[in-house]
Amino acid sequence: MATESIFHNIVIDDTKKAEAFITTLEQSAQTAVNYPLRHVDSEDVKGEDIKKLLGALVK
Predict the structure, then answer these.
(1) What does pTM read for this prediction?
(2) Interacting residues of 21 by C-beta distance below 8 A, sequence separation 6+
(3) 12 with 18: CB under 8 angstroms?
(4) Residue pair 19/12 in contact by the 8 Å Cβ criterion
(5) Can you tell me the distance from the alpha carbon of 59 to that of 52, in angstroms, rounded to the nearest whole number?
(6) What residues contact residue 12 under an 8 Å CB cut-off, 6+ apart?
(7) Is residue 7 classed as helix, strand or coil in its secondary structure?
(8) 21 within 8 A of 12, measured Cβ to Cβ
(9) What does the pLDDT read at residue 17?
(10) What is the per-residue pLDDT across 2-54, written as a single tens digit (0 to 9) for each?
(11) Containing H/E element for 49?
């Protein structure tokens, strides 16, 4: 049910808390820019690798 909570509006009435929230969002955005996700070519992943992974998760 936690995923349902993302669809609710969040109201921050305290100015200091609102500023802290915005600062945190800005800092996390900057961190995301500095640490891009590693690119994995699709040809690096074979069908058998996927079957092994999914099989391991099921067992």
Answers:
(1) 0.45
(2) 12
(3) yes
(4) no
(5) 11
(6) 18, 21
(7) helix
(8) yes
(9) 93
(10) 556 666 777 889 999 999 999 998 988 888 777 777 776 666 777 788 888 78
(11) helix 47-58
